[in-house]
TrEMBL record:
One Pfam short name: OLF
Organism superkingdom: Eukaryota
TM helices/strands, residue ranges: none
Domain Olfactomedin-like: start-end pairs: 45-297
PROSITE patterns: OLF
Protein name listed in UniProt: Olfactomedin-like domain-containing protein
SS bond partners: C46-C228
Species annotation: Porites lobata
InterPro entries: Olfac-like_dom, Olfactomedin-like_domain, Quinoprotein_ADH-like_sf
Keywords from the UniProt entry: Disulfide bond, Secreted
Location in the cell: Secreted
Amino acid sequence: MIIDAENDLDKTRDSLCPQQGGFFDNLRLSVSSYYVFGTLAFAGRCTNIRAVGKPVTHHTRKSTQGAWMKDPLGIMGSETIFVMESYTGRDVLEEFENMAKFKAGITRKTYKLPYQWDGTGGVVYGQYLYYNRANTNFIVKFNLRSGKENAQIRISDYTPRKNTYGWGGYSGVDLAVDENGLWVLWGSTGNSYRLYASKINVQKNSITHTWSLDTEKMSSMGNAFVACGVVYCIDNYSSKSTTINFAYDTKTGKQWNPNIQFTNQYRYNSMVDYNPREKVLYAWDNTKLVTYPITFN
Ligand SMILES: [Ca+2]
């Protein structure tokens, strides 16, 4: 896990310091040392979630379903907000400079993507957007800096539009970011329709490991996310009061029911994703864009 994180951070470093040379070599070395040390120090503090707080409402959009996020690496700016509104028939990603501009409806940039997306599982991670290409088993890796497709990552056993979270909406592919890098949580016709979790290597643009989890069926589940290498599943998307009723630690193979209270304030939670930089959950609940504070053990 730490090695993957370092690989991801290598990528980050490369994007920050792409040119070779005396000055940059020295800079790269010091940045590398910082990140390796920082990652190890950080990993030691990474623990299980004890509680999720009440949602904080930030903004309202037109669509019932969608995805919104910041880049958890901060490369695209620590305040920059990205929005993928709706779950189908769309191919435009919106970027806002900060929350004030977002609330004022002032778009900084829009990106025309090479393909439409399915679901609400897209994430920005560094200078790339990752999302499920509609009705395919491919994750598109789109370079926000160049405005071009960088790669497509195949989920070999995924059959499109055969399994989803409780709310439906082609939500069978759910990308997630944690302290260890990029993951994809997904459901297909295998594993008795329960959830799979796969780790993605963003340098090789491939899946390095897949876990078949012993969750409830994906269609009975509200949403899922990963924090500190632990996959967490929320029981329900529409009950105002629900629980995180499944946890699986990919580091140890341990599984348990953490029974953590979780509030779907607006009764239609179509997206929940962890931001490891801010240590909060981002969610899109029935047109309302909310965050949840998290308490770790
Ligand atoms: Ca999620």
